[in-house]
Amino acid sequence: MKFASIRIITGNIKQMVAFYEMVTGVSAEWLAPVFAEIVMPGAVLAIGSEATVPLWQENSAEPGANRTVFIEFQVNDIDAEYARLKESVLLVHELKTMPWGNKTFQFRDPEGNAVSLFMPATEEARSRFAGR
User: pLDDT band at residue 1, thresholds of 50, 70 and 90?
Assistant: First the structure.
């Protein structure tokens, strides 16, 4: 099995795609007016308009309703990313090092989804990510 993507359903696809293009620095690939992908090494962030929900199952997804998933991006320089984004995003928490060794900050996207940027900060964390 191969992990392929995370998909976000949104009420405003243009705003959401622009937000993630700004965060990642990657231009989206628009596969349809209601669907785009931000293709990055390791995974794809798919963004679908709420108009795509009935293609799966009516009412199977609801924009802005998630409070359990964190979308995480590993970066090379967490301090630089924090300085770049802190004035452009709604921060949940500022830079801190987590008990498992990642230095991170968290913010919300336009639909309220939690987004974390992180960098392995301890030797143990760096060795854990070395083989990924």
Answer: confident
Q: Report the distance separating Cα 12 and Cα 56, nearest Å.
A: 19
User: Which residue from 122, 68, 76 is spatially nearest to 100, judged by alpha carbons?
Assistant: 122
| Domains: count for the chain | 2
Per-residue pLDDT tens for 51-73? 988 878 887 788 888 878 899 99
Distance CA 104, CA 125 (A): 12
- The model carries a pTM of 0.90
N- to C-terminal Cα distance for the chain?
16
Query: Is the domain of 71 the same as that of 131?
Result: yes
